[in-house]
Amino acid sequence: MDSLQMVALGRPFDLGMLYDCRSDKLIPGITLWDKEKLDRDMRERPQPNSEFRIVASESISDKSSSLGVEASLKASFLCGLVDVEGSAKYLKNEKKVHQTGQSHSVMIKKIPEITIEGSGALKMEDKEREKANKCSCTFHGDFLLEKSPTTFKEAVKVYQDLPRLLGPNKENVVPVTVYLLPLSVLDSKASKLVRQISLKLVTKAENILEGFTELEMWCNDVLKSPAGQMFPKISKIKTFKRMCSEFKLGLQRTLSQKLPLIRGGGEGEAALAEVLKKVAQGPFNSDRLKQWMEDKDDETNAVKSLMKLMQNTETVSSKNALSDKVSDSEKALVFVLTSLDSTEPFLSELEQHLKGSKSDSSDAPEPRRWYSSEDMIYTTVRRKAKLFSDFAEANKDKDRKSLRFLVVGLADKNQEGSAVYLYEDGFRVSENVELPSKPGAVTVGEVTHNTVSLHFSAPSEGAHSVTEYRVEFSEKGKEEWNQQLQAEAGEVTVTGLSSYTEYSVRVRAVTDLGVGPAAAPKTSIRTLPYAPPEDLKGTASDTEIRVQWRRPQVEQGVCIFLFRWILHLSGSLISRSVNKTSACFHVRIRSSPVSLCCLGRRHRCFGLCC
Q1: Helix 286-309 / helix 376-394 crossing angle, nearest 10 deg
Q2: Tell me: the pLDDT tens digits for 274-291?
Q3: Where are the domains of the chain?
Q4: What does DSSP assign to residue 142?
């Protein structure tokens, strides 16, 4: 067999050392020649070379390719046979969470072009400097630095100092590539490397192990999210992560036993293929693991959406924390997510597989996904959350000592998805509180100079908890809202308004716990500028009509400059205008049935008065 070439990966290779290619391990303390002979016969030749390469990937495949690691050695690294050191520790630098690193890659590409000014500052544009300040650095190398770089600026300095770090006589160099001569060249009876692991099987093993690394990052993303932090009931993901890690370590242990046997001829490659086949056919196959995580991702996103919807409430992370909060208030309304801790048959199946026993969980029915957008449960949960948030917003001015709004995750098998609990003085008094929605559409009826007639219907949700209704009105431009109570839904007349004034009007349901969200007409309302003429008196004969009235009182700024009368005479209309100073008028007619109406006219406005 010809000599083998491989990368050192920071391992302490030296001339004459023995290396076991079956297990990819150095055999320490033994050399075929003594040091004097090695030094005497050793020849050195400088081969200066440098490369700069960006690897914008976290996969073992891309990172090992950048370091020149061939397939068989990569297989040994993946199963833990090779313990890398120095710069090769880059292979073990796994991200714990997913991150977007596009801007980081752009900045790293600029490192060879950046110069350091006399003051020590980097010569960069402001936008580049802003991106650089967001970068962090971890150094993996074969040099002992005085200080490990942690910032972009420090990374640039280390890059520029690398040639100097080799030492004046290159005394700090380490092996990068080594050449191995088979012992069978010297002694035909020596142990031989019978076969290498095929690239196809190495790639399969790599994909499986990379899949577990990706799942670990995925789990960390969920656990570090606000939903994962505030709702530990999602801790089932911690259990999943632990079991995946346990299975991965077991698989690596099996591979580390199989590889040396296959390379030495003790077993064929079929043994490794069988191990990988069992993984693909078992519960820990990548498709089932990813499907479960996708479901949990959907659940987390649903919780995150609900948290955003109820951001005006307070989230508590545990039952004990909830007890402290509700004991600190006279009353507390608690929105409970009841299905976060639901049974997971798949996790039971994984647990049984790790114990070496077959589970019947695969035959168990799939749990109902309350968080699915296509499921009525989630629709109901979201509707309840909106009602809870609206009710909290309507009562935000209440002191927290008297009424508090909380969100928590607690198991409740009797209410799927969610429930609203009521606590009084720390004790739960109700587990099914129904909060009112806003009343039905508010429509405007008759408007006078000091009243407005409204019509509204009862709320579509929680109407049975309503004790009365509150009509609120406010002059445009003012913050103060006046109130008028109404016993039942339907018609209501708002009184005590000022003439010729624009008002905002809204209606709320009132309960024993507080008020519900408000419903309002589509537009604001303006009252009329004046009342109808008062003490209207009229006499009529066959040929004449006489009418008298008393001028109405008007608000300051309103000026009546004439009255207009309209006569309905045998199907036709006769209009007459009367000077503002007059309080009577008459008209001659032929004998006919007559009805009349008076219009008071003011600047830019006509108002119906009688």
Answers
A1: 30
A2: 999 999 999 999 999 999
A3: 4-193, 201-430, 443-526, 534-608
A4: S
